[in-house]
């Protein structure tokens, strides 16, 4: 039977003295030695450092496994019976002291630290286990190399908090940094700033040159801005072409802090403006930068980011390559716009839009046409004029569904008048360029005519001169295709836009509408009078019908008549009015 400890075994062997007895214990002794050797081999094979330390003054190393001398780069003998402080990191020794001062040494502790070694330092996790043997206290110190675990941890951290393309802090880490910066600013009462940097026309580069070129630009921009950052400032990427710069420790006063932030934004703008060489492709780039200042924790991280975003949006609106500071009035305007957008969306769905009609008359005052003009019958605000919501509808894309409603409603009304009064009066419908350029516009027209059963001859489309700016050739083809339904085309607000005669010649039009601004002053301003006269002459030369809009008095009318204009629209003949009222006028005409 094996003995509990070697001491007992030794006493037995020495005490008994007799050869015969010694012989009888010899196999047991040999077994014991074998057992110890096996155990040592096992320990020596371990990749963990295992060190036995006396829990006495000096903490001497009593034993260690084979990997310990390898790591320390000295023979085992040099380690044994020396103080542990010579070899192991200070934190380990410190824990030993704490465990000893706790009185009874029986606790177990874990400490992560860096292990110095001639092979280079590496992270180690030490477990300190207290043990007693033959009335003596020991520490069993087991140390594992945790480099792999640490690498994996740092990889996970990088993936979670850094953008993989630019290696910059991502949205999550930025959020953390902003929260910390707010707390710091609260403590030191110093201003900080958030700069929202958005590259101008990045999408175009991506679409025309491919994503790999776009990515190269983002990486280069990140590097350039990082180079000019001061210590303690943060540059991060929110995603796409949106970067955030967090400036900390600016001045104690707002005015100075604003200048500091502005100067820094200027430097960013300039560094981004420098030419790029993207894999041989020479590129220039600009940025729109929105800036908001903060002091303390009054504003939340989310509202600050929103303010910087709003300011950036304003910078874009002011022509790009610009820096804008956040302005609360701007915020209010955006808020209002957003509310209005939502309301307008439901207005289209819930029939809050109505069409008014304004008569167009000939020389003898007979109604020869009607212009359909949309109004929004707002449940609270009442009737809203188109100039107050059409631009928003254009900006948000709502103009497509709004325009479709106008077209269908006008066709429905034409059909009713046709059936009820056998009316053949043309109705003009305003179509914005965005709506006209929509791929589905032709089909929308065809559907509206088909579903209402209205002949194209009774419909006229009013376009503005901006139709000339983009895709002129495509637009000409579209107008031609739509004209094949018998639909007429009128160029609205003529004289205010491009008015290029060469284009005018190429556009397949039926009518020019002289803008009301020229009619207004026709009697007082000789320039306007001359311009109107010229427009009328040119139109007649191009075989186009001319209509003067905004005719308000007899004087204007006689000027126009003298210039050869034959069709008129304006308050003199009637304001835009609802269907029931226009019907009363129509009955007299027909
Ligand atoms: P527009 O197409 O040039 O329409 C003429 C505008 O001048 C109308 O304003 C009309 O009420 C106004 N007007 C007519 N005669 C006179 C006059 O003698 N004196 C004065 N001071 N004004 C006169 P409204 O109805 O407020 O429409 C404004 C603009 O909104 C329109 O200008 C048009 O560009 C746009 N719009 C109206 N309805 C629609 C629509 O259904 N779709 C689109 N895309 N735009 C529309
Ligand atoms: Mg019009
Ligand atoms: Mg007009």
Can you give me a brief rundown of this structure?
Helix content is 48%, strand content 22%. It has 22 helices and 21 strands.
How would you explain this protein's 3D organization?
The protein has 590 residues and is of the alpha/beta class. It folds into three domains: 27-149, Beta-Lactamase; 162-326, Alpha-Beta Plaits, CATH 3.30.70; 345-589, TIM Barrel (Alpha-Beta Barrel), CATH 3.20.20.450. Helix content is 48%, strand content 22%. It is built from 22 helices and 21 strands. The strands form four sheets. It has an eight-stranded mixed beta barrel with strand order 13-14-16-17-18-19-20-21, surrounded by four helices. A hairpin with a 2-residue loop joins strand 9 and strand 10 (281-283). Helix 8 (202-209) crosses helix 9. The longest helix is centred in the N-terminal third of the chain and has 27 residues, at 19-45. The protein is elongated and about 150 Å long. The termini are far apart. The structure holds ligand C2E and magnesium ion (2 copies). Residues 358, 373-374, 385-387, 390, 403, 406, 430-432, 462, 492-493, 516, 549-552, 569-571, 576 line the site of ligand C2E.
């Amino acid at each position: 039977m094996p003995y509990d400890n070697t001491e007992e075994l030794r006493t037995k062997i020495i005490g008994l003295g007799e050869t015969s007895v010694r012989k009888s214990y010899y196999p047991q002794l040999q077994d014991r030695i074998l057992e110890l050797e096996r155990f040592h081999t096992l320990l020596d094979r371990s990749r963990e450092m295992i060190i036995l330390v006396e829990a006495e003054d000096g903490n001497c190393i009593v034993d260690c496994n084979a990997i310990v001398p390898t790591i320390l780069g000295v023979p085992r003998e040099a380690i044994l019976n020396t103080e542990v402080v010579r070899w192991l990191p200070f934190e380990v020794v410190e824990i030993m002291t704490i465990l000893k001062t706790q009185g009874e040494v029986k606790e177990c502790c874990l400490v992560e630290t860096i292990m110095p070694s001639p092979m280079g330092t590496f992270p180690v996790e030490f477990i300190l286990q207290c043990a007693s043997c033959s009335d003596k206290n020991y520490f069993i110190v087991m140390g594992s190399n945790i480099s792999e675990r640490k690498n994996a941890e740092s990889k996970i951290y990088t993936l979670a908090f850094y953008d993989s393309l630019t290696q910059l802090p991502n949205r999550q880490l930025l959020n953390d940094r902003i929260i910390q910066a707010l707390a710091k600013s609260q403590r030191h009462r110093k201003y900080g700033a958030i700069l929202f940097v958005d590259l101008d026309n990045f999408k175009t580069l991506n679409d025309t040159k491919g994503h790999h070129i776009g990515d190269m630009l983002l990486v280069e921009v990140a590097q350039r801005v990082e180079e000019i950052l001061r210590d303690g400032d943060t540059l991060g990427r929110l995603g796409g072409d949106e970067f955030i710069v967090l400036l900390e420790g600016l001045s104690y006063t707002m005015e100075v802090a604003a200048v500091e932030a502005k100067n820094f934004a200027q430097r960013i703008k300039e560094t981004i403006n420098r030419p790029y060489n993207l894999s041989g492709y020479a590129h220039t780039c600009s940025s729109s930068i929105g800036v908001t200042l903060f002091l303390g924790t009054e504003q939340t991280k989310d509202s600050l980011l929103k303010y910087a975003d709003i300011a950036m949006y304003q910078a874009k609106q002011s022509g790009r390559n610009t820096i804008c500071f956040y302005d609360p009035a701007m915020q209010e305007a955006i808020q209002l716009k957003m509310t209005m957008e939502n309301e307008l969306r439901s207005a289209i769905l819930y029939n809050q839009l109505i069409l008014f009609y304004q008569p167009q008359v000939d020389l003898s005052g007979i109604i020869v046409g009607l212009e359909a003009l949309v109004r929004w019958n707002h449940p609270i605000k009442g009737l809203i004029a188109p100039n107050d919501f059409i631009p928003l509808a254009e900006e948000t894309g709502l103009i497509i569904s709004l325009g479709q409603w106008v077209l269908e409603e006008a066709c429905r009304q034409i059909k009713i008048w046709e059936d009820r009064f056998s009316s053949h009066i043309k109705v003009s419908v305003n179509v914005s360029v965005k709506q006209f350029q929509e791929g589905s516009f032709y089909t929308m027209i065809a559907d509206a005519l088909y579903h209402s059963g209205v002949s194209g001859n009774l419909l006229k489309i009013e376009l503005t001169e901006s139709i000339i700016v983009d895709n002129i050739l495509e637009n000409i083809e579209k107008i031609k295709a739509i004209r094949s339904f018998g639909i007429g085309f009128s160029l609205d607000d003529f004289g205010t836009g491009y008015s290029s005669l060469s284009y005018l010649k190429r556009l397949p039009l039926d009518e020019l509408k002289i803008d009301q601004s020229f009619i207004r002053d026709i009697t007082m301003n000789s320039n306007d009078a001359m311009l109107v006269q010229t427009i009328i002459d040119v139109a007649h030369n191009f075989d186009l019908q001319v209509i003067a809009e905004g005719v308000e008095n007899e004087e204007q009318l006689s000027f126009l008549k003298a210039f050869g204009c034959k069709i008129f629209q304006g308050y003199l003949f009637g304001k835009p009015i609802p269907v029931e009222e226009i019907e009363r006028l129509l009955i007299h005409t027909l």
